[in-house]
Design goal:
This protein has 213 residues and is α/β, with parallel strands linked by helices. Helices cover 43% and strands 17% of the residues. It has seven helices and seven strands, in the order H-H-H-E-H-E-H-E-E-E-E-H-E-H.
């Protein structure tokens, strides 16, 4: 899909949010840019070889950072017309944290909670003309995640240490983010989640822009 057509189909709120993040690339430290450029190069190599690009974002509980990374990487790739499919998982499963769900809604994603179980299933949309992404907590090696040929992106230090080797991965990248749960049940809670949401969006967009060369 042409990049302009892809961008036009995103919800206006998401387009604005990502446009704002594009103007913040100078806020990304040089050492993190290097890590993000490695991820972008992985995507670009697969594109050049006409191979599918699958990315699994991994944190310990698949509750906050991995889901936000999955969603923003997909939105950024779609906006730029890149053929990328994103997934997320943990070293164990818990639930997609409602604070993180609220943060992505404030940023412009549209979310439908479909179950009230311990581990709810959410349908997350970034455009009306695209299928919703199904989000729930799962182990990184559990369905529907791919079992081979993917890029594994470790978005927390604990998962990075616990999984020095990710079976089936064609590439492994450690790009940790500070867990927003540090502000849970405090007056700074919403602001902290919004800040982390924006940082992840900014850095996933940067990586995807580098994937285009």
């Amino acid at each position: 899909m042409h990049a302009d057509a892809a961008q036009a189909s995103l919800y206006p709120e998401l387009r604005r949010f990502l446009a704002d993040r594009r103007g913040e690339f100078d806020r990304i430290p040089a050492e993190r840019k290097e890590l993000l450029e490695e991820l972008g190069a992985f995507v670009r190599r697969h594109h050049e070889a006409d191979k599918p690009v699958d990315l699994i974002f991994v944190c310990t509980h698949n509750s906050r950072r991995s889901h936000m990374s999955q969603l923003w990487a997909q939105a950024a790739a779609d906006m730029l017309g890149l053929r990328v499919t994103t997934y997320s998982g943990g070293t164990e499963d818990t639930a997609f944290n409602p604070r993180a769900v609220a943060a992505i809604e404030r940023a412009g994603f549209r979310v439908e909670k479909t179950t009230e179980a311990r581990n709810p299933i959410y349908h997350v949309r970034m455009a009306d003309d695209r299928p919703a992404m199904t989000c729930f907590s799962k182990a990184y090696d559990a369905p529907p995640n791919p079992d081979g040929g993917f890029g594994a992106v470790m978005v927390c230090d604990d998962a990075d240490e616990a999984c020095p080797v990710v079976d089936g991965a064609a590439g492994r990248f450690a790009i940790p983010f500070v867990d927003p749960k540090v502000s849970d049940n405090t007056p700074a809670e919403a602001a902290t989640y919004d800040e982390r949401c924006a940082q992840i969006a900014r850095e996933m967009l940067y990586a995807m822009t580098r994937a285009r060369g």
